[in-house]
């Protein structure tokens, strides 16, 4: 009997502690905190039931705490965002990030927090097809950061279609007009995560002395059809995809040799200006609009133009891991 009483006492105390933590977390401080909702109440009940049944619960919030704009300071403090450059070297070498996302808000926030630095600049492209709730949550988060913004033009992104490349280009165009003197632009998707610190990434990029990182090789056999045949995007309510037709494409413009590689790259600011304005880049973009996964040949093909970038980093034995494989 004493052991049973001791067990019930422990369970009761544990439930009280958990309730206090939830209460403080949701009601303490500024009024900008989100209130304890039904899902939180259900979670609390499930925790208590788990204790009573002799099980150890694993708690993980299904929503990150986001404050209203008036409470951004509290949100940054509670989430432990870095609010000042950690070194002179990093302050003098700001980076630009392109983040293309469409769902999993919590995952996006964790990536954003991991790569966030106040001297950097961040352009976030949200799939036009994303839910209103997701778009609103992203916009609310970014409103807390003067160096982060939504892309000025959103695309309904179709996997393997030109829309994925266009999403990156929309952000590059926005970043080109930024007063932040960023040195490199790095594109990411919502499921990426860095294994190096900002300083380590900066030191790595500085070693390339303005050269681009566009991993790629001549097209392997399985990839030749991607640019040989005309492809069309199909944008449906339930499912979107790219269709391969039997129509043959004309040769690439300007007698360019098409290379195949990673869609994820690190580009110097000078090179992004070339991408946005040079006729060869603009013509290649137009030619690529009916190819499959043009983001996997666009960057590396342009970076292989000898007179543009004679010494750039292209990686002959490209393994498909994207630019992040060089930051691990």
UniProtKB/TrEMBL annotation:
Pfam families (UniProt xref): Branch
A Gene Ontology BP annotation from the UniProt entry: transforming growth factor beta receptor signaling pathway
Entry membrane topology: Single-pass type II membrane protein
InterPro entries with a match to the protein in the record: Glyco_trans_14 (IPR003406)
Localization, UniProt: Golgi apparatus membrane
UniProt GO MF annotations: acetylglucosaminyltransferase activity
Keyword Membrane among UniProt keywords: yes
Transmembrane parts of this sequence: 7-25
This protein's GO CC annotations: Golgi membrane
Alphabetical keyword list: Glycoprotein, Glycosyltransferase, Golgi apparatus, Membrane, Signal-anchor, Transferase, Transmembrane, Transmembrane helix
Pathway field: Protein modification; protein glycosylation
Protein family (similarity comment): Belongs to the glycosyltransferase 14 family.
Protein name as catalogued: N-acetyllactosaminide beta-1,6-N-acetylglucosaminyl-transferase-like
Underlying gene: LOC129391487
């Amino acid at each position: 009997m004493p052991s049973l009483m001791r067990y019930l006492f422990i369970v009761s105390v544990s439930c009280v502690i958990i309730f206090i933590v939830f209460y403080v977390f949701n009601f303490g401080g500024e009024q900008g905190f989100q209130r304890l909702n039904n899902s939180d109440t259900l979670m609390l009940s499930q925790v208590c039931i788990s204790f009573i049944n002799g099980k150890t619960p694993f708690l993980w919030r299904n929503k990150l705490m986001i404050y209203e704009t008036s409470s951004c300071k509290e949100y940054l403090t509670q989430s432990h965002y870095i609010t000042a450059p950690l070194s002179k070297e990093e302050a003098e070498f700001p980076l630009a990030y392109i983040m293309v996302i469409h769902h999993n808000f919590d995952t996006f926030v964790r990536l954003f927090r991991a790569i966030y630095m106040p001297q950097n600049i961040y352009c976030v492209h949200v799939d036009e097809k994303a839910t209103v709730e997701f778009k609103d949550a992203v916009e609310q988060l970014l409103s807390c950061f003067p160096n982060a913004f939504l892309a000025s033009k959103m695309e309904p992104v179709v996997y393997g279609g030109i829309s994925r490349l266009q999403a990156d280009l929309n952000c590059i165009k926005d970043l080109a007009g930024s007063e932040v003197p960023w040195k490199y632009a790095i594109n990411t998707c919502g499921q990426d995560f860095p294994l190096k610190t900002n300083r380590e990434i900066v030191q790595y990029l500085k070693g390339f002395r303005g050269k681009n990182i566009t991993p790629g090789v001549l097209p392997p056999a399985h990839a030749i059809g991607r640019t040989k045949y005309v492809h069309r995007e199909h944008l449906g309510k339930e499912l979107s995809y790219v269709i391969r037709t039997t129509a043959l494409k004309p040769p690439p413009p300007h007698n360019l040799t098409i290379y195949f590689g990673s869609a994820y790259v690190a580009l110097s600011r000078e090179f992004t200006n070339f991408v946005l304005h040079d006729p060869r880049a603009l013509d290649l973009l137009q030619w690529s609009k009916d190819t499959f996964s043009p983001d996997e040949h666009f960057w590396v093909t342009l970076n292989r133009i000898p007179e543009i970038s004679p010494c750039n980093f292209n990686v002959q034995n490209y393994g498909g891991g994207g630019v992040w494989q060089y930051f691990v």
